[in-house]
Write a sequence for this structure.
DNA sequence: GAACTCCATTTACACGTGTAAACGATGATT
DNA sequence: AATCATCGTTTACACGTGTAAATGGAGTTC
């Protein structure tokens, strides 16, 4: 079905730069995930099966490239959360973070600008 | 580990009103999940094991009550998404929805009010 | 008290996921 | 040519999850 958590870590690397070999991917995930090469290979094969990436031969090895855009993935995940927990609306989500004191000064400033823009557009 | 998707559906019912029996829960999830009674029982037992709910005897059956608050669950899920996809910051998340044209007029109005409040508080 | 009815508890089973080891093929080295 | 190194491919295996069926035990009814 969807892209799993571990698979997403691989995708993140490829979104940061592609095409890349399995070895490069392993190096790029690096510290946070203490993976063996075999683990990365398995994940790549599962992603291939899911058509989330494609492979092109480069000599004896393969280079991998994302087929789905990060934007699409982010959209799907975000909408999922929003629908499951906030009745599909954004304002309650932000209200939640606000109540939890999870809005940084910077967040507030940026949100303010963002809303002003939208407000103007709507004019 | 965490509360799974199906388990969350049961929790939602209990958050809406508790304590409730397995049968009442089954009835309350109703249409969207076409579950047998056994399914609900399994989920309840897993939730008990995870200390997410507790059971109290009521005659021959049990009544179930949440032990973790919906707020806590929502926080965890939301923070998870934010950290994984938006570098832990709220503004980029809202920007994402904005770019996807997923902000309703109502969302915008509410966000505006929210931000104004925060801005005032901060002085 | 034998049979029935309701619950709960136990067991099941396939599929996805995280995490690799084992095996195999193909090109490089002696 | 025989061996070594380097990839990819196949197989593995435990644990969580979704989804229940089977079993068991305690009241309830003939």
């Amino acid at each position: 079905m969807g892209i799993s958590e571990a698979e997403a870590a691989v995708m993140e690397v490829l979104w940061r730069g592609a095409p890349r070999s399995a070895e490069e991917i392993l190096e790029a995930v690096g510290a946070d995930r203490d993976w063996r090469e075999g683990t990365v290979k398995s994940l790549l094969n599962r992603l291939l099966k899911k058509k989330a990436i494609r492979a092109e031969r480069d000599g004896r090895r393969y280079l991998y490239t994302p087929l789905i855009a990060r934007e699409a993935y982010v959209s799907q995940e975000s909408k999922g959360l929003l629908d499951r927990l906030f009745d599909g609306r954004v304002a309650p989500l932000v209200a939640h973070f606000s109540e939890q004191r999870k809005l940084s000064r910077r967040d507030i400033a940026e949100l303010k600008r963002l809303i002003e823009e939208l407000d103007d557009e709507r004019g």
Remarks:
- The interface with chain A takes residues 8, 74-75, 77-79, 81-82, 84-85, 89-91, 93-98, 100, 102-108, 110-112, 114-115, 118-119, 122 of chain B (CB under 8 Å).
- The mean pLDDT of chain B is 95.
